[in-house]
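Continued from yesterday's entry.
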Amino acid sequence: MGKMVSGIDGLRVLVTAGGSGIGLEMVRAFHAAGAKVHYCDIREDEGATADLHGVTFSLADVSDRLDVERLFSETIDRLGGLDVLVNNAGIAGPTGRVEDIDPAEWDRTLAVNITGQYNCTRLAVPHLKQSQNASIVNLSSLAGRLGFSMRTPYAAAKWAVVGFTKSLAIELGGFAIRVNAILPGSVDGPRIQSVFANKAAALGQSVDAVQEAALSATSLHRLIPPQHLAAMAVFLASQEGSSISGQAISIDGDAQVMV
């Protein structure tokens, strides 16, 4: 990774929800490229990054503004500033027909998936304005480009991430801060298997049938390795990615519809 891109060595990076899944791959990729990385997660650090020398951790829920204030205090204290914010934190939200969704679950999904990005961004921007290579990478979803039946809270939030990203890119471009969104498709790992299982239960189908339907709607017909998303985040933060801003970049195996 470090040989493929330049300008990452020494960058100060904050990754939200970096303790597992996509977030953990982001932490690993930035660290491998020479960045100084701090990450947060809603769960206590369970040693996922124990082999990554110098990576530091905060316990934080991005939907809780007091948590986020403490997170940024700890981040700046440990990194000495900020060059890259990766707004990765997100939850799957409920699966069900809109009339059956618990309003509290709707509220929680939006609180984490879009308001959480605002909570972090508003505190990051003053520090990013002082950076010589500043960028924000927001995690949206294929659901932020296509409609997603039975997952309306998640899809609504992920569409909002794209609007947030494009608006921020315009607003912050004069400060040389780049803002982009990554839109993953079905990413390999426990989370997508849980999503498939919940949808299978809601539809009365097998998990295999739900997964096959999802993959059959893509040209490449496969799950997305989380490392590919991490590689894109590192590229967007690099000198080679320094002309890219305001983009919603899909990494989804060329999905045509969401099933």
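--- second protein ---
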Amino acid sequence: MSNRVQRLRASASAKRATVLCIDDDPIVQLMLEDIIAGAGADFVIAGSAREAEDVLADTHVDLVLLDRRLPDSDGLLLLQAIKSRSDCPVIILSTMDKSRDKLLGIGLGATEYVTKPFNPLELSSRIRRLLTARSETTGPVGHDVCLVAGMTFDPRSRRLDTERHHIILAPAETRLLHALLLNEGQVQTRDELTQFTCGREWSPGDRTIDVLINRLRGRLRSFPVEIVTVHRAGYLLVSNAEVASKT
């Protein structure tokens, strides 16, 4: 892990994490209970989207395991509802294994997409890694207000402002923009951005950051900054004035 990413991290908390499992299959529920208990976390089971929404309204959740096919909703609709209210990572568990399904899930905010049947040891490893990364990235750094190029960005409220424009970003977009703002003018590799935004290491073929970058670029069209692609290196955030001075 790079020093730049390490500087973005806060101290870990000793509090046990809570994982919400949203799946209506009793056998899968039992498997997930064992996996989560083995990962040292508490778990809550919901068999439908409605049950999950009730849990989320009353319970702090650190990670969500989400089935795509629920009896009362498409899991992707629930994913969007979860990400609109929380920045907790979401792992989609699904028998739908097409590339377009995976890209759609990641594009809507899922941290990872795991196809069924899954390897319990591999899923346990993913859960441990995400929970560890989440405990390390929750802290004061997430609450610093950034002032760059005439913009005000508050990661806590996920709000980005100028005198004329303001938007509320999605949680993953917030983490990505925060990482870029904290290192304005410096190239951030896909691995650095993936670790800070998703809580895991980047691997070849992982397009999560590329999808998020494209989405964030669209949100920033009315703002005085630009995300520049640096060939074979990564991305950096620069002001529009700086871009204009070099053209």
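The mean pLDDT is 83. The two ends are 34 Å apart (CA to CA). Will compare against the first tomorrow.
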